[in-house]
Amino acid sequence: MEISEVIEDETATATSFQFEKSVRDYSFTKSQSRDINSFEKWGLSPRLQTACLRISGRRFDASEARAFLLDLFSSSALIEALLVFDKAGKSRKLSSQMTPSSLEFEELRSTATSMTFFDRLIEAGAVHESGSIKKRMDEDFHGVSICDCLREALLCPDEGSMQFSGLFSESDKNELLYRLLRLVATGGPLCQHEDSWEPYLDATKALYKDLVVVTKANDGKTVNAVSTTFSVTGLDGLFPNDNPHNVCLVSVDPIRRTVTIFMHTFLSSGW
Q1: Distance CA 238, CA 250 (A)
Q2: What is the C-alpha to C-alpha distance for residues 202 and 152, in angstroms, rounded to an integer?
Q3: What pTM was computed for the model?
Q4: By the 8 A CB rule, do 50 and 261 touch?
Q5: Could you tell me if 184 and 205 are in contact, meaning their C-beta atoms sit under 8 angstroms apart?
Q6: Are 148 and 84 contained in the same domain?
């Protein structure tokens, strides 16, 4: 090996993000958890993947998000910890050989930290004051049955009766809290949906607490998110299709120096 090649390898190691396997308990993965039973009922469990890695060496900086995510998804630690699925539902390991330009992601907002963020769904009539979800005529939306107004408001507000159009702004839809409620309310292809939205809210709250580190401001009341969370929507081999219900969240905890990957692959006969 040439000296120049050794120097190049050492430089690459020094400037790249490094990851190691880490162990962490999540409330939604514990066998006795009400949430994991709900995930099974909603059809999420079969293709729900979680992984926690420790960030070693170089410290995370949100301004270097693309480099961080490329290093993460090509790391041996993640490849060993995460499974992906093909169109037939068979699992395999993610390939480290990816095209960097295939990476598509967005940083999500974490300014909404209270369930009152969703009160507008009651005010708009998607959910009754009692918490029961208003029903509607069944309609298919990319493999999901839009059988109630909660799903309509979260998944296709501009394609239905227009009753829920503009209920959530684009900024609202980029909130992690919104994405989590949309995930659990959507479920998987074989979802047994709820008549009340309380189980969805409880699961959303549990997921948020597991994925995000928060601190209180000096007033002792205001809660601020410390974690940075990304939604990865495109990457070679990550998903077998481009279904909009696929979810891959990457949450970075700068205090513990860990990164959590929370991923669900949506497979249905039409995709």
Answers
A1: 13
A2: 20
A3: 0.89
A4: yes
A5: no
A6: no
Tokens of 35: 């949430």
Pair of tokens at residue 66:
């693309």
Nearest-CA neighbor of 38 among 268, 234, 194?
A: 194
Task: Please give the residue range of the domain that contains residue 94.
Answer: 18-105
| Nearest one of 200, 189, 153, 187 to 173, comparing CA atoms | 153
**142 lies in the same domain as 69:** no
Asked if 82 and 237 touch (Cβ cutoff 8 Å), the reply is no
DSSP run (H or E) holding 40: helix 34-41
Angstrom distance (rounded) from CA 237 to CA 6: 31
Tell whether the torsion through CA atoms of 191, 36, 200 and 107 is positive or negative.
negative
Number of domains in the chain: 2
- Max Cα distance, the chain (Å): 72
Q: 212 and 157, same structural domain?
A: yes
Structure tokens at 207: 């997921």
Mean pLDDT over all residues of the chain? 87
Residue 231 is encoded by which pair of tokens? 């939604």
Residues 81 and 153 in one domain: no
Residues 151 and 198 in one domain: yes
Nearest one of 225, 193, 231 to 212, comparing CA atoms? 225
Average pLDDT over every residue of 106-113: 95
Strands 228-234 and 223-225: unpaired
My answer on whether 78 and 170 are in the same domain is: no
For range 95-111, the mean pLDDT: 90
Assess if residue 241 is contained within a domain: no
Judged against a pLDDT cut of 50, whether residue 139 lies above it is answered with: yes
User: Are 141 and 219 members of one domain?
Assistant: yes
Q: Note whether residue 12 is domain-resident.
A: no
